[in-house]
Amino acid sequence: MQRAEGSVGAMKIRGAVLERTSARAPFIESAPVTVCELDLSAPGPGELLVRIETAGLCHSDLSVVDGSRVRPMPMLLGHEAAGIVEAVGSDTPDIGIGQRVVMTFLPRCGACAGCASGGRTPCVPGSRANNAGELLGGGRRLVRDGVEVHHHLGVSAFATYAVVDHRSVVAVDDDVPPEVAATLGCAVLTGGGALLNSAKPGAGDRIMVVGLGGVGMAAVLVALSEASDGHEVIAVDTVPEKLALARELGVHAAYTPAEIAERGVQAEIVVEAAGAVRAFETAVAATAPGGTTVTVGLPAPDARASISPLALVAQGRSIVGSYLGSAVPARDIPEYVRRWRAGRLPVERLISARVDLADINRAMDDLAAGHALRQMIVVD
Ligand SMILES: [Zn+2]
Ligand SMILES: [Zn+2]
């Protein structure tokens, strides 16, 4: 489907629309998401039409469904995906038709104070657009029965096609398979970024990851990909199957939170990726003197933790928040691709199931139950 610039019109797509927030599980019964036909506008200036190849179901999707992240409704979900560019608007100098791209959840305008921070704080117009359910260029490209549907984090990838700003994607070569490419865009970018951008481990530091969801397990993989620096990697979760997988992936030890408390296991770098208060408290307690706790999970806005300020002072410890892995996608994704290509970052191991778009409510139940890592949504 080669089309010249500007010649593409609006098109019909199929997508998964979240109708209302704060739905109760089981979602297979409350059915907050409907798969339906929508109209997708042609890409405007700086925008791309992308045929979605695959999309990962992430905990941040679930957070919108259950209402712990408040977003405007209705919203076409999905923010971790890979696809092929099928048409381009004007002003997309670096990306051509046929290019495989990784979707990223935080567009970067390249011109604001956030973008100048090197990933430490998010892009200001990008965050504003995400909160409004719009693309970086402003407005929405999705309409259903005459009513606009909001974009999820500038992507909305649980669909056959998406129109996205070119600053919401990173190009990858054809040898990177779609499922690998997709996971690099959220799970690996976030979990790996918490470690490499926020914690910045020194040689010989022990690295512990608390909470082995997609992001946490990706942090484990990235920690192991650093193994040449002699890091000991410790995985912590309450679910035995996840600890077993972490052992298979090559961690040096895997424990439940109770076991690390009992045995006094600590690490210089502790990444908390569960987004729960108890996991955060576990992570802080397990941080060795002089060490750093990095928290990348997204707990509910009203969550409060109990920690000892004196223990921070007396032991010279730090707590660092890492929003979305302090990632700069255009800088970080090529590094993860290099590690994957060298066989050091087997992100395929994060994929726990493949699910038809039509079964997305059931997939949300599996994710909420805590036994899914990355379920890849098959859109065609
Ligand atoms: Zn995500
Ligand atoms: Zn910016």
What does this 3D model show about the protein?
The strands form 3 sheets. Strands 3, 5, 6, 9, 10, 17 and 18 form a 7-stranded mixed sheet that branches. A 6-stranded parallel sheet has the order 13-12-11-14-15-16, with helices on both faces. It has a 5-stranded mixed beta barrel with strand order 1-2-7-8-4. The protein contains 12 helices and 18 strands. The chain is globular. It has helices at residues 27-30, 59-65, 113-116, 124-132, 178-199, 214-225, 240-249, 257-263, 277-285, 309-314, 329-341, 360-368, and strands spanning 11-18, 33-40, 47-57, 75-76, 80-88, 100-103, 142-144, 147-151, 161-165, 169-172, 207-210, 233-236, 253-255, 267-272, 287-295, 318-321, 351-356, 374-378. It is an alpha/beta fold. The longest helix is centred in the middle third of the chain and has 22 residues, at 178-199. Bound molecules: zinc ion (2 copies). The site of one zinc ion has 10 residues, from helix 3 and helix 4.
Describe how the helices and strands are arranged.
Elements (H helix, E strand, L loop, with lengths): L10 E8 L8 H4 L2 E8 L6 E11 L1 H7 L9 E2 L3 E9 L11 E4 L9 H4 L7 H9 L9 E3 L2 E5 L9 E5 L3 E4 L5 H22 L7 E4 L3 H12 L7 E4 L3 H10 L3 E3 L1 H7 L3 E6 L4 H9 L1 E9 L13 H6 L3 E4 L7 H13 L9 E6 L3 H9 L5 E5 L2
Parallel strand pairs: 4-8, 11-12, 11-14, 12-13, 14-15, 15-16, 17-18
Antiparallel strand pairs: 1-2, 1-4, 2-7, 3-5, 3-9, 3-18, 5-6, 6-10, 7-8
Helix pairs in contact: 5-6, 5-11
